[in-house]
Structures are given as C-alpha cells and as structure tokens.
Amino acid sequence: MSATHDLLRTALELAAAGAPVLPLRAGKVPFGNCRACAKNGCGGRPNMKNAGPCRCPGVCHAWAAATTDPNVITSPAWTSAWREAAAVAYHPGGASLTVVDLDDAAAIAWAHEALPATRTVRTTRGEHWIYRGAMQSANAVRPGVDIKSLMSYARWLGPGTGTTTDLPSAVRALTVKKPPTVRPVVTVPALAGGEGCRHRTPAYLERGIAMAEQRIADARSAVHTTVYQTFLAVLSAHGRCGCLTDTHITRLFTAAQAKGESLRHCTEAWTNARARLGL
Description:
36% of the residues lie in helices and 14% in strands.
C-alpha cells in the first residue's frame, strides 16, 4: 500500500469523523495558493471555520482549505497534492477542538501542573493536549506553548491516549492580554570621569555573548525554554544601552537554530523576552 493511499485513507477517515482535513508538504507546511488566489487575488482568505468563498479546485488558503467533503478530498487537484504530501493536517477549530501544543519537556511539566488531563498525542519534541471546544489560536502564550484551534491547523499524529475533556478556563486565559505593567522611570547616573557605558567594552560584551551561545549549546532538554531564558538574560544585561548589534543577535539565533529551534521560535522568544523587560 502506497504512502499516498495511506494519507488519503487517513484523511477520509478523519473527515468522516467530522474533522476538516488538508494535506501538508514536507516541513509541516501547507500547499501554496493557486495562481488565481496568489497575493489575495481572490479577495483574501476565507474566515472562521469553513473553506469559505474561494471555490478554486486547488488546496488553497492553508487551514481554510480544510474540508470534510470526500468529493473534494478525492478530487483530481487534491489527489495530485496527496501524491506530494508528507502528512495529513486538520483544522481543530472546525472540529470544535483545541490543541495545546507543548513543545518541550518543560512545557509538558507545566501542563501536568496547570491543566486538567485530556487526550494526549506525542509529537516530535513534545505533546499535543486536545480539548473539546474551540477558541482563538495563539502562538507562544508561554514558553514552549502554542494554541491551535480556530483559523489554524495541526498535524495528525494519531488518535493518542486518554479521554478528550472540556476546554478549561485555564487554557482560554492564556490568550487574554494582561494590562501593561506601569514601570517607574529609572535615571541611570553617568559613570565617573565621563566614561561611556561599560557594556561597550568589547571584552565584556563578547564574553556575555559567548557565554549565552555556550549555554544554548549545552542544553540537553527544554531547549525552547533555555533559549528564551538565555535571550532574557542577554537583554537584561545589554538590552537598554544600545550595545547589541544585528551581528550579536544573529549569533544567538544561530546557536538556537543549531539546537533545532525554528526561526519563528527564535523570533517569538526574543520578542517575548523584550516584552517581559519592557524594552
């Protein structure tokens, strides 16, 4: 039995169970839009749960292409996509589900302490915790944790174990934006003798960046959390005085990507660390 047949059979079984499906290319990414829909030529991607106003025959608009219609799933255009596909994905929100995507061991440990038990599916580096109920999707709601539900897709990795339970308020609360903290204005006195910022000393800054690279390289688990905490430490020391250059930041990102972090995760960790420090 071919891999294409396996993917198509899985997709049809999921669709029959009420989960809108779509094929994914290698790298867990959806297929690109057709020419008619490229650059929002059809008026923009559809909204909310279903495939929406775009009626092109191709697998367009990422999560919004997801469907439960077997005639679409087995159509010539989709069959061509299945031949190139590497995995099946589904639209959790379209199936009234929410997936809490836990990216590493530290995130899993947090979930065991903070969230009620539910159906669990193992992933490459962590776990998917699946709850009954839909909500808005959000990335990086805390270190190593993404939420996939409405207007998002999740890779199908099998039925998992355990019983699906209702979406708890603790998960919904993760996407609620907290009011900004009012921080007091701190005036930093000038250094004696009219010297510049001590962080501009090449050796001081170089030692800090080298230590950060080594800390990331030495991580054996919870890589995502280690990267975030390292970025936070670097910004705490050097983020307010203009010392950091694009070269320094690139070195940190390169060290993180060498440990398997994606550019998206690096960017999110850096942004979250800056926000944490009010930079």
